[in-house]
Amino acid sequence: MGTYNYAPGGGVQPSNLDTGKFVVLKRVMKAQDIIAYNATLTAAAKITAGDVIEAIDVPAGFLVLMTAVKVSTAGTAGNTIDVGIGGATDAYQNGVDIVTLTAALQLVSDTYGWTTLQGKYFGTTDTIDVLYVADEIVGEFTLYAIGIMLD
């Protein structure tokens, strides 16, 4: 199990988001591309169960209202993912089926101690992470984080 950065900016936070407007951050998560992107994953020839992939860079001042997962190519049979942030990798979505070709949409969960409809505010930069519950070598989905840039 490891944590690997696959966010588009490689840890560089987006700085051109318009304040006060709805924003959709997205990242295509293709298993073969993620494996090829990181030497450790390439050597293993898979994403190992329990691996966390940092998928979307989130700037300070961003309020995430919901996340969504849209599967475009079925993953390894029976596999699921969790979506969250470091220390709470299932804070947004828990047990998302990445095999069935249907979208999984969920508001921010109550893991943060707030009501679901209030979202999660990022006071500092961070990443939205994907935890793979089982080994993965195939499949593709798009991860969306929908929110508002407040600062």
Which key features would you list for this structure?
10 strands, Jelly Rolls, mainly beta, 5-stranded antiparallel beta sheet, 151 residues, 9% helix, globular
**CATH fold assignment:** Jelly Rolls
Could you say how many structural domains there are in total?
1
Share of residues in strands: over 45%
The CATH architecture can be named as Sandwich
Strand order of the largest sheet: 1-3-9-5-6
Gyration radius from CA atoms, angstroms: 15 Å
Ends distance: 35 Å
Please, could you describe this protein's structure?
With 151 residues, the chain is mostly beta strands. It has one domain (3-8, 21-149): Jelly Rolls (Sandwich). Helices cover 9% and strands 48% of the residues. The chain has 2 helices and 10 strands; from the N terminus they run ββααββββββββ. The protein has helices at residues 31-37, 39-44, and strands at residues 3-5, 22-30, 52-58, 62-73, 80-85, 88-97, 103-107, 120-122, 126-132, 140-149. The strands form 2 sheets. Strands 1-3-9-5-6 form a 5-stranded mixed beta sheet, with no helix packed on it. Strands 2, 4, 7, 8 and 10 form a 5-stranded antiparallel beta sheet that branches. The longest helix is centred in the N-terminal third of the chain and has 7 residues, at 31-37. It is globular and about 40 Å long. The chain starts with a strand and ends with a strand. The model has no long low-confidence stretch (mean pLDDT 82).
